[in-house]
């Protein structure tokens, strides 16, 4: 258990999570006629290998059905790999699931670990008993986590009466009460408003900085990755396609951000400095595309100085679009 405020430097390089050619194959039966079924195999995870050092925050992204959640379930011991080797803190999750449970925390964005009809504080008291958390540490952790996530006034409210954002913050507290060394987050900001997302992200940053908690984050929101992770892995069709910095992903996938500009009146297309370009105009609103690896600051400053600006916003590239461009790029290289 890592109790110190800062992780020792000699532990930072330790492979805390290890996957070596891990596979997961499901048998699927499909009805093909009266009393007839066809059996086939679906390879959800296909020979994936990667390492995550203690204290890292890593984004694990990909389109729906790519194998992200299957990987997380194998890392927690819910599923047993069909092949390969998997270790978390030196433990085989599927063989020693109970032992591992005391060292990990899990948040599934679309499922809650809280008791639906009980007040929030009762769920935490049950966690206290289940994980056999010492009383002093339970009280300290509850106080440390509840305040920044603004849950103090909600502890006596039944979980079913909480908003999605409040419940998500409640789930994060529940996952952290026992001081896990690694935290798996599966879509933790899905459906949250901007304010709730900011609170969740800030709490996760502080958790990693102060406690050295290792975080593996799956999400469809690239802003989650940009604000929390220095490293991103892309999975698609069960295979690891990319492992490196987010800037490198944008370069490989040739992804673009979109700057949406609202002007005071309808005008001709904005003359934007290359490589930015106008891709759409509707009345006083214009859409400009620019490389996702570049900052929007210079483009925004130029437009604000030369045009009657009312409002603007930046839209992040869609993960599916980034991966699709990666496929096109790889196919082009294979042909050449």
From TrEMBL:
Bilayer disposition of the protein: Peripheral membrane protein
Subcellular location: Cell membrane
InterPro entries, per database record: AAA+_ATPase (IPR003593), ABC_transporter-like_ATP-bd (IPR003439), ABC_transporter_ATP-binding (IPR050763), P-loop_NTPase (IPR027417)
Alphabetical UniProt keywords: Antibiotic resistance, ATP-binding, Nucleotide-binding, Transport
Domain of life from the UniProt record: Bacteria
Main location (coarse class): membrane
Record domain ABC transporter: where: 23-262
Keyword Transport in annotation: yes
PROSITE patterns given in the database record: ABC_TRANSPORTER_2
Gene Ontology molecular-function annotations: ATP binding
One of the Pfam families matching this protein, by short name: ABC_tran
Alphabetized Gene3D superfamilies for the sequence: P-loop containing nucleotide triphosphate hydrolases
Protein known as: ATP-binding cassette domain-containing protein
